[in-house]
Structures are given as C-alpha cells and as structure tokens.
C-alpha cells in the first residue's frame, strides 16, 4: 500500500498501488496519514519525499470506492481524505514531492503543500473537478493561485485539461523538471542537502514561511468542502460518474438544460 525507506535522514514514502495507478482508497489515505504522523514525530527523520510506484504518481481518489462510500456500502477510514490532507498541511518538516507519472485530483493538488516539487519530463497533471461536476479540493483554490497566479490557477482548476511537465515548470507549480530516469536522484540530492541541516532550524524556517498562510488555507478548505457537498450526488455528478463507468464523455449540456 505504501513503502517506507530511510536513508541519510530522508524518509521516502512511495504510494504503492500500481495496479490502480496509486489511486487513493480509504486504506491508502489512512496509511499515508499514519506515515506522515510517524515521520513528523521521528527525531531521525529530517525530510520526507513522497512519490509513486509504477507509471503513475497518483490517479487521485478511487472513484469506484467513492461511489461505494456515497451509497453507504463502504465504511470510511480512520483518517480518510480530510485527515490525510490535515497531516500534509500540518507536516512540520520539509516535504518534497517527486511526480514520477500521471497525477490527477489529489495527485495534483498535493503540490500546493509541497515545499519543493520535482517532476519527470514525461509526467502530466490534471485537476479533473469540473469533468466530475464537483469543486476543487485540498485548499487548491488558495494554494494554486498563490503558487502559479490567478489565471494559471483558473485554467488548471476549471478546464480539467492535462498539464505537461513543461507547463507546470513554466507556471511555477513545480521546482524542477528532469528526465524520468533521473527524477529520484535529483530529488534525493536536494533532500540530502536539506537533511544535513538542523531539524529544529528546518521546522522553524518552514513555520515562518507558512504560518501566515494557514488561516487562508483552512478557510479555503471549508469553502471547498461546502461546495463539494452541494455538488456531490447532483444530477451532473451522477452523470459524470456514470459516464466514467461507461467509458464515455459526460453530457453536461443535457443535464444543465433539464435542471435549468
């Protein structure tokens, strides 16, 4: 589910559901949250690197399980989506993200919490919220405009279009792009530079940068959750999930015409 490796005061967390493109089910949300809690508390860990196994970084939330949760046939995890995002947002040490492949949904919006993000030149990102007839998540309605500017954020969050590695670098969504076979070496080289520093100094330095943003992100997440709640289970959202299962494009125009 998640692989944990330590070297030179750097802990690497590898999302390991390659058969599902590392999509987050409740078990993976829980495992990632627990791993972040452990890393935050471990005095031997100075830096955490988050990456994925196989050809994807993460395909986002497991839509099959989401449908089961919505229907009441699946029990939520101990942490779930919200709890994992809480742990990422509050993580006190440097968090580096190495995007090794496809990243959708939380596999893209997590970059809003990355202290440094690295991306393979073959990787792509997508925020598919409007294609699912839902709203942005994980504070991205604030973190993305802060990182990449309002218009780039609007395109990323409203279009549901793929963003290439080159586009992500140009926007400022990622720190560096490198050949796929060099991604982890480049990421780890930067991680080791940070990990050689005093952990209390790293924590305080990160806190001074991010403390002023905490309230705005918390407020954004509350707004996003409310918007998501209004849209989840709506006719358009049901059409989107049905279309996904049937491997076709959703017909939102017909839904809007009927509902209007």
Automatic annotation (TrEMBL):
InterPro entries to which the protein is assigned, alphabetical: ClpP/crotonase-like_dom_sf, ECH/Chromodomain_protein, Enoyl-CoA_hydra/iso
Record's keyword terms, sorted: Isomerase, Peroxisome
Record-level Gene Ontology MF annotations: delta(3)-delta(2)-enoyl-CoA isomerase activity
Coiled-coil regions, chain positions: none
Isomerase recorded as keyword: yes
Domain of life: Bacteria
Keyword Disulfide bond among UniProt keywords: no
Protein name: Crotonase
Top-level taxonomy: Bacteria, Bacillati, Actinomycetota, Actinomycetes, Kitasatosporales
